[in-house]
Amino acid sequence: MPTSSKSGYTIDIDDSADAANRDVTLAAMTCNGSAANARLNYFVAADPLTRGETGSRSFASDRRGTIYSETVASIPNPIPAGTDFIQ
Hints:
The mean pLDDT is 94. The relative contact order is 0.21. 0% of the residues lie in helices and 34% in strands. It has 87 residues and is an all-beta fold. The strands form 2 sheets. The protein has a 5-stranded antiparallel β-sheet, with no helix packed on it. A two-stranded antiparallel sheet has the order 3-4. The protein is globular.
């Protein structure tokens, strides 16, 4: 999916690069007539357009539903172990 921007952040919604990701439903069997098969995992990230000006933290989430944050750089796909999460 293409990235978009909102409120000083770029938003990326994408297929997870996790090695365990796989198709779970054929496109023809989805309820929304999707052109692609439904996948097990997803990845979503938000990064400041200009770090330090439009925002100071990057955010990401995946199938676990946890929101992760990073102050130094974008969070890679898949989210690595040890990434800080918001409590």
